[in-house]
């Protein structure tokens, strides 16, 4: 940023003292920043001898370039720099450009080398874990197992720290989700490995115990391999990852192509569009062929598939005519055909979404009592092999239902991270089901074995945990579909240019240019961080249907779409869209203030004034935002000023909201405790709510690899010998 300022400064014949001082300050700032950066680089070089030489050279180049820039910008003390023998930015701008290029290339080199070191650390840590796993697999004495597992636990904790940091640094949301899934597997499998290995040691001749243990080791190795694939950005044997296309993403791409015909009639072929539709309709067969899809949903999907083909045929016919003869009537016919095709695809998307989510809701409700798992535990302890066989068949049926549910949900998940989460859930059910069966068979063969019973409990807990995760996942998928989360965060009442226009002529959009986006980016980023904070606070509430929570979530969604606007993304395409969104946001804030007033009647007298004071602040800020959003402006500069003011005032409201939500949550708990409806929550409860809720959102799944739980596994091994 500082270098760009230097390079882009305008060469004016008259230079004020203020300008000269500013240029010198920038040059010094660059040099100081480079010095700090290089100090870190040199420290890394000293700790990693294999890259020390390369890193040292890059650091020397960066330091030299920073010093050159400082010298060339040392102009504040010169009255007439151009007449002085001293070379400056004014007499040698090329020198600054060269120094800047050298600086940027050397800084990039330092970053790349540092990144290589991080990757190497993760690979080394993985190799340690694998080596210890091999020892654990071959161990035959219980005492030896305890010692090696303690070492293994410490190595897993180190691996968790390294991969957690790496996951937070990843820019690709898809890779982040894959990393989170792999690390979640490793966390759960660590406890499974402990109990499965103990069971195998206690019952060395039991085939089902050996199968159970082998399954855990195999799954851990696959997860470790996937982490390395993500970190090194490579696939085994050089093969490319071919992720299956979901119906949701297929429809999104298809609609983009169809709507692109408005701008360009020649940018793709009719065969291309037909192929895209065929692929989407092939995927709908996953629904129509499924034994779990209702007759009504199946009929609607088939009907809409047929209609989509007809609408595309009509669109292609008008499109071909428009290519030959671009008349006003034909262009209006084309617009109608485009709208009809897109509407049909939206209806198809809605239908498959309804089919998948209704099936998921029914299955999760049906299996919430975990009757099959309870029966397996009871019959296992009784040593009733016949009954265990009967319930394992029922568990296999349940597994098939849940696997099918995950496959269908993947099609309608809406974002790539959620899609990956669905695939991870499918894999978990596929693997955990047979592992529960082998653990139950082991217990039935050794009904008095405490370790076999404990082992079955661990695998059943993993199954129950995954079912619980599915409920959260289903809610997130519905949120994305309804526009409350992710890429689609936007209010549905938002007017779309041309949507309700009878003559089908689109309004000319007013957008921010690149320079304006850059100016407003910092404000937008602050808004983004605040939406994350608000989401985190709302997820802590046990009652998600509470009116205060609902208003808070709605405001967070709208603020997020305004943040996306500052980046030139999302569904707010024009400044008018933004102003309309700001008005709705302010209205929602006023509704929240009303809800706070109603809530204040329920709280103790001591707390009431503080809550009412905060509510009044909220009303005042929302009125200011509404006035700004409704104000009429003309001209590009005035419009940008209004955009800036709307974002700033929205940020102020969100800042207040971040303070209000925890206050209300605290007062609600205090009120419940005081009225005897609910006992005061112990101190750790708050942290658990936060951790539990946050772990399931796409942005926060980075923390699902619970390092604390791993440390607990390691600690628990100290009790093994006494047992």
Automatic annotation (TrEMBL):
Record key words, sorted: Cytoplasm
Localization terms from the record: Cytoplasm
SUPFAM superfamilies according to UniProt: alpha-catenin/vinculin-like
GO MF assignments: actin filament binding
One GO location term (cellular component): cytoplasm
Entries under InterPro entries matching the protein: Alpha-catenin/vinculin-like_sf (IPR036723), CTNNAL1 (IPR030045), Vinculin/catenin (IPR006077)
Gene Ontology biological-process annotations: cell adhesion; Rho protein signal transduction
Protein family: Belongs to the vinculin/alpha-catenin family.
Database matches in PANTHER family: ALPHA-CATULIN
Protein name: Alpha-catulin
């Amino acid at each position: 940023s500082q270098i760009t300022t230097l390079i882009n400064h305008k060469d004016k014949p008259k230079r004020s003292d203020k300008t000269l001082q500013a240029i010198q300050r920038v040059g010094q700032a660059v040099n100081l920043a480079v010095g700090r950066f290089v100090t870190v680089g040199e420290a890394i070089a000293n700790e990693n001898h294999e890259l020390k030489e390369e890193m040292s050279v890059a650091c020397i180049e960066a330091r030299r370039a920073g010093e050159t820039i400082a010298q060339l910008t040392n102009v504040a003390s010169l009255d007439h720099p151009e007449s002085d023998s001293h070379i400056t930015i004014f007499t040698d701008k090329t020198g600054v450009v060269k120094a800047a290029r050298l600086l940027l290339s050397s800084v990039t080199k330092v970053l790349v080398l540092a990144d290589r070191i991080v990757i190497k650390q993760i690979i080394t840590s993985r190799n340690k874990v694998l080596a210890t796993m091999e020892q654990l697999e071959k161990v035959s004495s219980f005492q030896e197992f305890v010692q090696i597992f303690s070492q293994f636990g410490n190595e897993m904790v180190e691996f968790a720290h390294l991969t957690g940091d790496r996951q937070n640094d990843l820019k690709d949301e898809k890779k982040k989700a894959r990393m989170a899934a792999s690390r979640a597997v490793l966390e759960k499998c660590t406890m499974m490995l402990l109990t499965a290995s103990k069971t195998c040691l206690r019952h060395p001749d039991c085939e089902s115990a050996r199968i159970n243990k082998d399954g855990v080791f195999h799954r851990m190795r696959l997860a470790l391999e996937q982490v390395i694939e993500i970190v090194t950005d490579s696939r085994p044997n050089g093969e490319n990852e071919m992720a299956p296309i979901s119906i949701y993403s297929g429809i999104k791409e298809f609609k983009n192509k169809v709507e692109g015909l408005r701008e360009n009639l020649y940018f793709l072929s009719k065969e291309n569009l037909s192929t895209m539709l065929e692929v989407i309709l092939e995927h709908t067969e996953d629904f129509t062929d499924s034994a779990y899809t209702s007759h009504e949903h199946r009929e609607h999907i088939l009907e809409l598939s047929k209609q989509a083909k007809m609408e595309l045929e009509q669109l292609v016919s008008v499109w071909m005519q428009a290519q030959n003869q671009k008349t006003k009537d034909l262009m209006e016919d084309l617009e109608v055909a485009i709208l009809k095709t897109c509407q049909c695809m939206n209806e198809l998307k809605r239908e498959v979404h309804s089919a998948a989510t209704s099936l998921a809701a029914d299955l999760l409700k049906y299996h919430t009592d975990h009757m099959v798992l309870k029966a397996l535990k009871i019959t296992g302890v009784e040593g009733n092999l016949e009954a265990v066989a009967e319930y394992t068949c029922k568990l296999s049926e349940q597994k098939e239902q849940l696997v099918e549910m995950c496959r269908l949900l993947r099609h309608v998940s809406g974002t790539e991270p959620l899609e990956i989460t669905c695939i991870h859930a499918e894999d978990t059910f596929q693997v955990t089901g047979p592992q529960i069966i082998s653990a139950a068979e082991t217990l039935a063969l050794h009904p008095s074995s405490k370790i076999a019973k404990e082992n079955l409990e661990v695998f059943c807990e993993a199954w129950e945990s995954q079912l619980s995760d599915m409920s959260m996942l289903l809610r997130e998928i519905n949120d994305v579909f309804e526009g409350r989360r992710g890429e689609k965060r936007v209010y549905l009442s938002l007017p779309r240019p041309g949507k309700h226009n009878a003559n089908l002529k689109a309004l000319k959009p007013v957008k921010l240019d690149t320079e304006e986006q850059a100016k407003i980016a910092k404000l937008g980023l602050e808004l983004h961080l605040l939406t994350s904070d608000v989401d985190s606070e709302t997820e802590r509430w046990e009652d998600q249907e509470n009116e205060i929570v609902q208003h808070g979530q709605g405001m967070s969604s709208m603020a997020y779409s305004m943040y996306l606007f500052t980046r030139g993304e999302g569904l707010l395409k024009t400044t008018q869209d933004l102003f309309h969104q700001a008005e709705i946001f302010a209205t929602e804030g006023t509704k929240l203030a009303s809800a706070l007033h109603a809530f204040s009647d329920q709280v103790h007298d001591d707390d009431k004034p503080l809550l009412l004071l905060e509510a009044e602040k909220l009303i005042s800020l929302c009125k200011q935002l509404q006035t700004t959003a409704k104000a009429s402006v003309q001209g590009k500069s005035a419009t940008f000023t209004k955009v800036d003011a709307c974002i700033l005032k929205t940020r102020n409201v969100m800042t207040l909201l971040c303070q209000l939500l925890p206050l209300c949550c605290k007062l609600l708990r205090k009120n419940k405790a005081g009225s005897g409806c609910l006992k005061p929550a112990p101190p750790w409860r708050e942290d658990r709510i936060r951790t539990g809720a946050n772990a399931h959102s796409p942005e926060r799944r980075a923390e699902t690899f619970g390092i604390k739980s791993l440390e607990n596994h390691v600690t628990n091994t100290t009790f093994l010998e006494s047992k």
